[in-house]
């Protein structure tokens, strides 16, 4: 059930209305991740199914009775002890997150009523079901130790802590203009990522829908938006939030073809109109329909590869930040040596057991004596403190060269993956997507497919004719980029590429003619169009003769260096690009 917090809200409302006041008659655990609660209401028995399956977590009232193991698992026995014969007091959603609290009143000693809470966290591979009392964890269907998470352990006796990210805005409680203002201020690269980072409970589906309703591409860069766009985005937010606040829910399941469920939402995702949209009267009915598809909801190949690349880029970005910080510390190693020298020069006045001391700075360049505060280890002598500073200095100097190499390698990998992401965003045919998948396999980012399957013939690069008759060749992925640059282009052909921006290699064939400024302008627009800056204005494009383009030894596919270049700034014109790509 790939449902975000916004669409989960009406489902929780329906479950609360149907189950509140019901008595928990029986508890079963059909598999290691799932629970089935039989809830008795006047005149009917309801089966409340909860699953923390990492592949497909869900929450619904079901008519299906799954097979139960002969011996109940320990967690099931624990729940029977704590919850059976209790009454469901309420079912509520925490904020707008994918966290649902089932509050159950049970009778204890001397007739005293205690409230136990069953928390269902619907969060993909981090999904869990946790039993609490007074916010203390009794047990969970999946225990999380300090080896798995240093921030948040889920273990018996621990206090329950909500997952991180609870400080974001609730789109249903926040003024739309205020929400959009926060979105525009978010430190994100694209609009959809900024929406997700700003609003709690907003997943990729809702973010793309908000961008689409506002008239923007979800991948548009934040630098290309300004305060003038607040109105359009505010209207898009209001169009969804106001309906849900007024209870005007339109449960919808998006299916590709007949058997590929793509998404489920409490509103109609207009940007997915090209697929089959199934509408239902309740969210429960939508979830039940969605749940009938076997296996995990399949993703289109392009979207699946996009997720893989995005995850790798995010991992490398974090690594780059850590390495940069370590390198910054290593570059300040001389300060450690200076501290050691100052300690050695002042050994006779250092107070034993002090944790810091102001000492004469022997490196001061001023005529007057200057003091500097040196941090000390109280357990060490003065000379041992100095030796410790020298040891840290030597270690930092040794690591500096190693860190520079690691940082360069990390940046190279980032640039390479960003080039693949751009190629994938521009890929339309399945053959193009398969080529990119094969490149990822070769690079070791994903596993190879069945080797018995025949590989498809490689696609030829895109070829167009400028309005004044020059042939332009465009590489749409890294394999094609190397092909057009080093196999098909001649030394006097013009080579173009967006400056410091991932994109396609573009070649203008000279054919022993002087290449016109018009041809260079149109080819530059094609280079900008088939780059990461497709939606931007004034995109810098470098161009030079092919003879000045070289590939370093051992470089990754698509990577080149060049010189003797000129730079032009162009804005891709949709009308012109359309005429070049689809000539009459």
TrEMBL record:
<feature type="domain" description="NFACT RNA-binding">
    <location>
        <begin position="465"/>
        <end position="554"/>
    </location>
</feature>
<comment type="subunit">
    <text>Associates with stalled 50S ribosomal subunits. Binds to RqcP.</text>
</comment>
<dbReference type="InterPro" id="IPR051608">
    <property type="entry name" value="RQC_Subunit_NEMF"/>
</dbReference>
<keyword id="KW-0699">rRNA-binding</keyword>
<keyword id="KW-0694">RNA-binding</keyword>
<comment type="function">
    <text>Key component of the ribosome quality control system (RQC), a ribosome-associated complex that mediates the extraction of incompletely synthesized nascent chains from stalled ribosomes and their subsequent degradation. RqcH recruits Ala-charged tRNA, and with RqcP directs the elongation of stalled nascent chains on 50S ribosomal subunits, leading to non-templated C-terminal alanine extensions (Ala tail). The Ala tail promotes nascent chain degradation. May add between 1 and at least 8 Ala residues. Binds to stalled 50S ribosomal subunits.</text>
</comment>
<keyword id="KW-0820">tRNA-binding</keyword>
<dbReference type="Pfam" id="PF05833">
    <property type="entry name" value="NFACT_N"/>
</dbReference>
<protein>
    <recommendedName>
        <fullName>Rqc2 homolog RqcH</fullName>
    </recommendedName>
</protein>
<dbReference type="InterPro" id="IPR043682">
    <property type="entry name" value="RqcH_bacterial"/>
</dbReference>
<keyword id="KW-0648">Protein biosynthesis</keyword>
<comment type="similarity">
    <text>Belongs to the NEMF family.</text>
</comment>
<dbReference type="InterPro" id="IPR010979">
    <property type="entry name" value="Ribosomal_uS13-like_H2TH"/>
</dbReference>
<dbReference type="InterPro" id="IPR008532">
    <property type="entry name" value="NFACT_RNA-bd"/>
</dbReference>
<dbReference type="Pfam" id="PF05670">
    <property type="entry name" value="NFACT-R_1"/>
</dbReference>
């Amino acid at each position: 059930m790939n449902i975000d917090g916004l669409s989960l809200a009406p489902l929780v409302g329906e479950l609360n209305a149907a189950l509140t006041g019901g008595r928990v008659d029986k508890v079963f655990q059909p598999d290691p991740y799932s629970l089935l609660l039989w809830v008795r209401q006047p005149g009917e028995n309801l089966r409340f199914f909860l699953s923390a399956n990492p592949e497909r977590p869900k929450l619904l009232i079901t008519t299906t009775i799954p097979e139960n193991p002969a011996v109940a698992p320990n967690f099931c026995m624990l729940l029977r002890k704590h919850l059976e014969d209790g009454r469901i007091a309420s079912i509520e959603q925490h904020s707008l997150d994918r966290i649902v609290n089932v509050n159950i009143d049970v009778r204890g000693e001397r007739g005293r009523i205690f409230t136990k809470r069953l928390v269902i966290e619907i969060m993909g591979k981090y999904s869990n079901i946790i039993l609490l009392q007074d916010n203390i964890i009794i047990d969970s269907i999946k225990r999380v130790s300090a080896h798995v998470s240093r921030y948040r352990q889920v273990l018996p006796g621990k206090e329950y802590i909500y997952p991180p990210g609870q400080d974001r805005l609730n789109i249903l409680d926040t003024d739309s203009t205020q929400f959009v203002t926060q979105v525009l201020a978010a430190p994100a690269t694209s609009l959809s990522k900024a929406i997700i980072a700003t609003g709690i409970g907003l997943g990729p589906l809702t973010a793309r829908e908000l961008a689409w309703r506002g008239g923007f591409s979800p991948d548009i860069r934040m630098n290309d938006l300004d305060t003038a766009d607040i109105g359009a985005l505010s209207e898009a937010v209001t169009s969804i939030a106001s309906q849900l606040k007024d209870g005007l829910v339109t449960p919808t399941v998006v299916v590709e073809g007949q058997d590929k469920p793509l998404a489920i939402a409490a509103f109609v995702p207009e940007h997915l109109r090209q697929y089959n949209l199934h509408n239902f009267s309740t969210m429960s009915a939508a979830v039940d329909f969605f749940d009938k598809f076997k296996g995990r909801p399949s993703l289109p190949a392009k979207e699946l590869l996009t997720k893989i690349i995005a995850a790798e880029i995010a991992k490398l970005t974090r690594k780059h930040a850590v390495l940069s910080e370590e390198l910054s510390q290593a570059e300040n190693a001389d300060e450690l040596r200076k501290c050691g020298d100052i300690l050695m020069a002042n050994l006779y006045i250092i107070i034993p057991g002090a944790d810091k001391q102001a000492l004469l700075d022997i490196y001061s360049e001023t005529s007057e004596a200057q003091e500097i505060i040196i941090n000390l280890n109280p357990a060490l002598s003065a000379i041992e403190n100095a030796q410790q500073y020298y040891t840290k200095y030597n270690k930092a100097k040794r690591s500096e060269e190693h860190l520079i190499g690691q940082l360069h390698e990390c940046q190279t990998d980032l640039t390479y993956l960003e080039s693949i992401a751009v190629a994938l965003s521009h890929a339309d045919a399945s053959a193009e997507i398969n080529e990119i998948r094969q490149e990822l396999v070769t690079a070791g980012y994903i596993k190879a497919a069945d080797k018995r399957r025949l590989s498809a013939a490689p696609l030829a690069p895109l070829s167009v004719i400028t309005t004044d008759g020059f042939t332009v060749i465009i590489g749409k992925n890294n394999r094609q980029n190397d092909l057009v640059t080093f196999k098909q282009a001649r030394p006097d052909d013009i080579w173009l590429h967006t400056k410091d921006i991932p994109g396609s290699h573009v070649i203008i064939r000279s054919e022993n003619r002087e290449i016109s400024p018009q041809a260079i302008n149109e080819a530059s627009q094609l280079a900008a169009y088939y780059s990461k800056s497709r939606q931007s204005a004034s995109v810098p494009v470098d161009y030079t003769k092919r003879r000045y383009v070289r590939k370093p030894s051992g470089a990754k596919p698509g990577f080149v260096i060049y010189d003797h270049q000129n730079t032009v700034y162009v804005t891709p014109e949709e009308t012109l690009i359309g005429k070049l790509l689809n000539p009459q």
